[in-house]
């Protein structure tokens, strides 16, 4: 997986002060921000890891550059472990990742491409209301619109690691294909009309493309 290192120029050596507790076979990676990395493994999983803030400040203030901590490893690795903030099973091997904006002036999304030619995007919600709405919509879609082969949707997206902090847009986009009476039933549970749900889906789509 990812290893965070500190370079000591006077000793010409790298000290690993943080790593992941889960070994992974990476196929793609992207540097999201100062302490966050996005990665994908050969089993079709996409994930984000972040260095804990207190660890970053501790290493900066350590005059040895993390050397003392480096000698006190945990789990046969670095003394600190990164936090896994996102887990999602794509179902295909991701071969490239790039942060980009699809529309002029739009917010950036993490775009990815797979070995079978699929293109996807991971887009961050900016409001808590959107998170609550789409998470409840996803929950209703899992119950009311199971996959054709009968496999549980949650089990699929959690094939290797439990899905975490990701809403499946592909599943939510299947709402318009439901029978009208089922659309009304889900809309009533969400205290909205089917037209309002379709408008929310269109708005979310327009933020990416």
UniProtKB/TrEMBL annotation:
<dbReference type="InterPro" id="IPR050358">
    <property type="entry name" value="RSE1/DDB1/CFT1"/>
</dbReference>
<dbReference type="InterPro" id="IPR004871">
    <property type="entry name" value="RSE1/DDB1/CPSF1_C"/>
</dbReference>
<dbReference type="Pfam" id="PF03178">
    <property type="entry name" value="CPSF_A"/>
</dbReference>
<keyword id="KW-0539">Nucleus</keyword>
<dbReference type="GO" id="GO:0005634">
    <property type="term" value="C:nucleus"/>
</dbReference>
<feature type="domain" description="RSE1/DDB1/CPSF1 C-terminal">
    <location>
        <begin position="1"/>
        <end position="175"/>
    </location>
</feature>
<dbReference type="InterPro" id="IPR015943">
    <property type="entry name" value="WD40/YVTN_repeat-like_dom_sf"/>
</dbReference>
<dbReference type="GO" id="GO:0003676">
    <property type="term" value="F:nucleic acid binding"/>
</dbReference>
<comment type="similarity">
    <text>Belongs to the RSE1 family.</text>
</comment>
<protein>
    <recommendedName>
        <fullName>RSE1/DDB1/CPSF1 C-terminal domain-containing protein</fullName>
    </recommendedName>
</protein>
């Amino acid at each position: 997986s990812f290893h965070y290192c500190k370079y000591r120029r006077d000793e010409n050596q790298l000290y690993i002060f943080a790593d992941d507790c889960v070994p992974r076979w990476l196929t793609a990676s992207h540097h999201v921000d100062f302490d966050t990395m996005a990665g994908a493994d050969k089993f079709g999983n996409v994930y984000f890891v972040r260095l804990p803030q207190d660890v970053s400040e501790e290493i900066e203030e350590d005059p040895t550059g993390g050397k003392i901590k480096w000698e006190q490893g945990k789990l046969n690795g670095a003394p600190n472990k990164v936090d896994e903030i996102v887990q999602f099973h794509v179902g295909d091997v991701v071969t490239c990742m790039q942060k980009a904006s699809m529309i002029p002036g739009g917010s950036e999304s993490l775009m990815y491409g797979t070995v079978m030619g699929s293109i996807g995007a991971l887009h961050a919600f900016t409001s808590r209301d959107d998170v609550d709405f789409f998470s409840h919509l996803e929950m209703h879609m899992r119950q009311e619109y199971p996959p054709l082969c009968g496999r549980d949707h949650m089990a699929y997206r959690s094939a290797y690691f439990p899905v975490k902090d990701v809403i499946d847009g592909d599943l939510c986009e299947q709402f318009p294909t439901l029978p009208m009476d089922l659309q009304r039933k889900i809309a009533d549970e969400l205290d909205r009309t089917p037209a309002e749900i379709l408008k929310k889906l269109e708005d979310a789509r327009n933020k990416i493309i």
